[in-house]
Amino acid sequence: MKMERRLKALSLASMLGMFLILVMGALVTKTESGRGCGDDWPLCNGKFVPAYTIESLIEYSHRFVVGVVGIILLATMILVFLYSKRKDAKWYVGGAMFFTLLQAVLGAMAVVWPQSSAILALHFGFSLMSFAFTLLLYLVFTRFGDAMYKGDGTRLTRGVRFSIWAVLVYSYVVVYLGAFVRHTEAMGGCIGWPLCNGQVIPEMTGPTSIAFIHRVGAAILGLALLTLFLFVRGQARSDSGIYRSVRLSLILVFLQILSGGFVTLAIGYDIYLLASLLHAVLVSCLFGILCYSAIASRHTRG
């Protein structure tokens, strides 16, 4: 029992740490601090403690947090493999470690060798996967763990279960498009919201096409989750974990869409950075909840 409490505490620390890494990574991108440490890694401008500049402070703080969270996650993984009997916990902590190392390597490569926007956009996606795995790991040691492992008696049709996984995969594509928008600095391609440059369908060239495709992708995701919720509501009990998670996903996706509009309208104002970070926070929560829904759906066979 004592060890289970330790595992729960460490998994919670890992999850919160990964969430912080996500937010700090978005901050690095939005403040254009990725080159704050020059071409050096793991040192910053050739020093262990870099000279104080805003860019170097943001970038080096991000690196430091990644290192600390990596150590916490390593300790969590060791204890999970030694003391936990849950196979799913071992898969989740292993997945979290894999994507944490992958994003660290990709981040180092981005510093030493210039990368394309398409590759840089993967960095946020890998961080998001790390967060999702640590979220699932933490939930294993809460009352939601049994629902993921054994189910709660809910019965869903094969089509609905497939749809949950399809929406999860599609949401990752939309997230990648959003990260690609950030790294190509295409957010300004669509001025105004909900219209793009005052048009329902703008001229599809350059940054405008990138920003507009992301908007359309987000709208489709919202409609897909609304449809999914209606099907789940017709098959699952209102007190079941799968129903509550899909309902929460629906709420989060519409908040995410509204926050995207907030980001667009905030361009050129001091509040733009805050709006962008809010956007990143909401999409992280949305993806994490969708992952829980997908895992829980495996034990809802009709």
UniProtKB/TrEMBL annotation:
<protein>
    <submittedName>
        <fullName>COX15/CtaA family protein</fullName>
    </submittedName>
</protein>
<comment type="pathway">
    <text>Porphyrin-containing compound metabolism.</text>
</comment>
<keyword id="KW-1133">Transmembrane helix</keyword>
<dbReference type="InterPro" id="IPR003780">
    <property type="entry name" value="COX15/CtaA_fam"/>
</dbReference>
<keyword id="KW-0350">Heme biosynthesis</keyword>
<keyword id="KW-0408">Iron</keyword>
<feature type="transmembrane region" description="Helical">
    <location>
        <begin position="91"/>
        <end position="113"/>
    </location>
</feature>
<feature type="transmembrane region" description="Helical">
    <location>
        <begin position="246"/>
        <end position="267"/>
    </location>
</feature>
<feature type="transmembrane region" description="Helical">
    <location>
        <begin position="162"/>
        <end position="181"/>
    </location>
</feature>
<feature type="transmembrane region" description="Helical">
    <location>
        <begin position="273"/>
        <end position="295"/>
    </location>
</feature>
<keyword id="KW-0472">Membrane</keyword>
<feature type="transmembrane region" description="Helical">
    <location>
        <begin position="212"/>
        <end position="234"/>
    </location>
</feature>
<dbReference type="InterPro" id="IPR050450">
    <property type="entry name" value="COX15/CtaA_HemeA_synthase"/>
</dbReference>
<keyword id="KW-0812">Transmembrane</keyword>
<keyword id="KW-1015">Disulfide bond</keyword>
<keyword id="KW-1003">Cell membrane</keyword>
<keyword id="KW-0479">Metal-binding</keyword>
<feature type="transmembrane region" description="Helical">
    <location>
        <begin position="119"/>
        <end position="141"/>
    </location>
</feature>
<dbReference type="Pfam" id="PF02628">
    <property type="entry name" value="COX15-CtaA"/>
</dbReference>
<keyword id="KW-0560">Oxidoreductase</keyword>
<feature type="transmembrane region" description="Helical">
    <location>
        <begin position="64"/>
        <end position="84"/>
    </location>
</feature>
